[in-house]
Amino acid sequence: MTPDLECLDLVKRFGDTTAVDNVSFSVPPGSFFSILGPSGCGKTTIMRMIAGFLDPTSGDIRIKGGSVLDTPPNKRPVNMVFQHLALFPMMTIAENIGYGLRRRGMAKGEIGRKVDEALDRIGLPGIGGRKVDELSGGQKQRVAIARCMVLEPDVLLLDEPLGALDLKLREHMKVELKALQAAFDTTFVYITHDQSEALVMSDQIAVMNAGRFEQVGTGQDLYYRPDTPFVAGFIGESNRWKGRIERAEGDTVQLRTDTGLAMRATGATLSEGDMAEIFVRPESIRLADHAEALSSFDNRLKGTVTSLLFNGAASRVLVRDDAGETLEVNLPQSGEFASLKRGDTVHIGWGAGQATCFGAA
């Protein structure tokens, strides 16, 4: 099956700065593909090259198998939704959605039919006569997407489209966007610095750092099986330590941290004497009142609660061990540690399989 979008060895330089450094990826038809990374990593530059607003220094961009490098932006089968939605305030909703169709010279009756169909698809039937300023933020978002979708693009590009919304609406729109993408069955390419947006909505995510893709995979792959220290540190929360490998047996290693702690972890390519970094997720660490309850774990520590971070079901606790290291630990949702307070002594433990180890850069 021909991908809807394919980027091959894409490079973009601005003077001496390489913003995009030899990036290749393909997006299958009807899928939701996200490019996730910190500000300045090059993700918007990729988006602007796909849309045709920037020319690549080298490489190729193909849509439905054909190169679009010589195709101007207004002739490419792509549309773009920006964070600032650029809806026309003097037009009605129907006029906004039908704007691109009018420019194409479509008959008035056909435009009306397509606009009504799009309003149905975005769950806002019958609002065509309203003005833009009568809509909520989430409704404006959906209208901006409908305005693009009536043009039936092969690929819809979305550049941080939820960035201007408040937190509660952003959470709601994550679910809405995924449903809209399925309803229109159009390929979405989404860029964001917000890992929660990418994890919730995407079929595949590319994690980008300093102009390159560090890893491409499903949200589960990136979260549970990171390929690089950057991905392990960028996706989700992690406790991390640096140290030297003391022992390596198969894919299990023992590392001695800078503060003298011995830890067992999984790190298949590491050898004795290597400098390394360990990542352990807060939800992988178990709390107990007594050390005996954690006897089956490879790594066990005693510590003092220094802070409670209450956030309902996502509550956490900070624990300082005897070596002075502070660990972040999820509180179990069972409520058995609901009375935990600052200054309490606790025991914590985790398995070598829950600790991911990488060679230090």
Commentary on this structure:
This protein has 361 residues and is of the alpha+beta class. It folds into 2 domains: 5-232, Rossmann fold (3-Layer(aba) Sandwich), CATH 3.40.50; 237-359, OB fold (Dihydrolipoamide Acetyltransferase, E2P), CATH 2.40.50.100. It has 8 helices and 20 strands. The strands form 4 sheets. The chain has a 6-stranded mixed sheet with strand order 6-7-8-3-9-10, with helices on both faces. A hairpin with a 2-residue loop joins strand 1 (5-14) and strand 2. Helix 3 (108-121) crosses helix 4 (137-149). The model has no long low-confidence stretch (mean pLDDT 90).
Number of helices: 8
Number of domains: 2
User: How many extended strands?
Assistant: 20
Strand order of the largest sheet: 6-7-8-3-9-10
Q: Please outline the major beta sheet.
A: 6 strands, mixed
Spatial separation of the terminal alpha carbons: 39 Å
Backbone shape: globular
**SSE string, helix = H, strand = E?**
EEEHEEEHHHEHEHEEHHEEEEEEEEEE
What do we call the CATH homologous superfamily of the largest domain? P-loop containing nucleotide triphosphate hydrolases
Mean pLDDT: 90
Point out poorly predicted stretches. Answer: none
